[in-house]
Amino acid sequence: MEMKLKFKYVSKTASSIWFESNYFPRKETMIHIDDLMKTGRVQELEIIDEMGNSWSRKEFIKLNQELEKEPENIKVYFDGGYDNETLLAGAGIVVYYDKGGESFRIRKNELLEEIDNNNEAEYAALHIALRLLEEIGVKSMPCTIKGDSQVVLKQLSGEWPCYEEGLNRWLDRIEALIKKLRLRTSLVVLNRKDNKEADKLANQALQGTKVHSNKRIE
Predict the structure, then answer these.
(1) What confidence score (pLDDT) does residue 80 get?
(2) HSE on the CB side for 40, CA within 13 Å?
(3) Helix axis angle, 118-135 to 196-206, nearest 10°
(4) Residue 10: is its pLDDT beyond 90?
(5) Is a pLDDT exceeding 90 seen at residue 107?
(6) Domains in the chain, please, with CATH?
(7) Mean pLDDT value across residues 4-11
(8) Whole-angstrom distance, CA of residue 83 vs CA of residue 90
(9) pTM
């Protein structure tokens, strides 16, 4: 999560000027606030997050302690694969996040039945990824979602229409989860070579190798 500051600065001429900063990492917030307060010229100060929420300095100190317990800086990679011979699908998901001053990576895959094609496998993979975010307690956060499926990401963004009934059902489920978790999503379409980790996990699922790990990144 990133923050910005909005504050009223009183100059030596007694006139006041409102300033607004750029966004910066949440962990730097109190450093910047303390520097400003040392000037003795800041009368009003507001801390604003990427979701548009705002707090006073006193409110933010309490909030900051709570945020240390929650996942933030969420990045999701997803991929789906479909085997035309076995009629099975594989989903691969990688989630990067920070919590309590440390960084973590989740790697997960699933072997899926009753999937009709590769596009549906991609949708299913993203749905599994969002359920994974729910499991680890992600809520009211910006979230970057990356994948190599233009169909899924451009239909989710509304850039492309979705006419297939089966895909529309997945789209509805995904949009409902995003709303439930109150996520502000940034959607990024990758080249396949830039999505190798999720792709490998999807293929491992099709080969019968199950993966599910949540490890701290050194």
Answers:
(1) 96
(2) 2
(3) 110
(4) no
(5) yes
(6) 2-67 (no CATH), 72-217 (3.30.420.10)
(7) 88
(8) 8
(9) 0.84
